[in-house]
Design goal:
single chain, mainly alpha, Four Helix Bundle (Hemerythrin (Met), subunit A), two-stranded antiparallel sheet, 56% helix, 4% strand
């Protein structure tokens, strides 16, 4: 697992884990106003996922696409999970392709800027993952203020520890031992603060 794998897997998994923790919140809680960032949990999650969708389209150098999928409200927790589960693999695929082709320092035209500007592929990948991280910090704060218990810290090292433990357990369950090739990447749950 290289640094790009860590950035991509930690980003998608942490956002997904936080969305899952919000499944039991009602609309009043999801839309509760706070004087911070995007001001509500729903707006913050929607902002994060919309940005992932928009930047992924830019990285593919394709027109902006609207969220596709089921009739589930695209801004409900289940709708945002669907959108994340659709866009995160696309983002990871283009990031890995650009890295494999040695194109991280190449640039594309960001046609959403007026006037359009050139941006590097690598800078955009870092921008998107750090953008999500800053908003996840807001999400954790809002969730705490709403009384959500057992919040994860959301940091990369706790995520990596859980990921590696899951990979080792999967390898042992499939008959491999320590040092055997790990199975294809999957996303582990985050560890709550209390479990650290």
């Amino acid at each position: 697992m290289d640094i790009l794998d860590r950035l991509l897997l930690h980003d998608a998994d942490t956002t997904r884990s936080l969305l899952l923790l919000c499944r039991d919140l009602n609309d009043e809680q999801l839309d509760c106003y706070f004087d911070l960032g995007q001001q509500t949990l729903r707006e913050t999650f929607s902002h994060m996922i919309s940005n992932m969708e928009a930047w992924t389209d830019l990285l593919y150098e394709r027109p902006q696409t609207l969220p596709q999928g089921s009739s589930v409200d695209q801004r409900s927790i289940s709708g945002m999970l669907e959108r994340l589960d659709r866009v995160a693999p696309q983002f990871a695929a283009i990031a890995r392709k650009l890295q494999a082709e040695g194109r991280l320092d190449d640039s594309y035209e960001d046609y959403l800027d007026q006037p359009a500007t050139r941006k590097s592929f690598g800078g955009t990948i870092v921008h998107l993952t750090s953008h999500s991280m800053s908003h996840r910090a807001e999400v954790l704060h809002l969730m705490g203020r709403l009384g959500v218990a057992d919040l994860p810290e959301g940091d990369a090292l706790s995520w990596e520890a859980g990921y590696l433990a899951q990979q080792e357990a999967s390898a042992q369950a499939s008959g491999g031992g320590a040092g055997s090739a790990p199975p294809a990447p999957s996303l582990p749950p985050l560890l709550p603060n209390a479990a650290r």
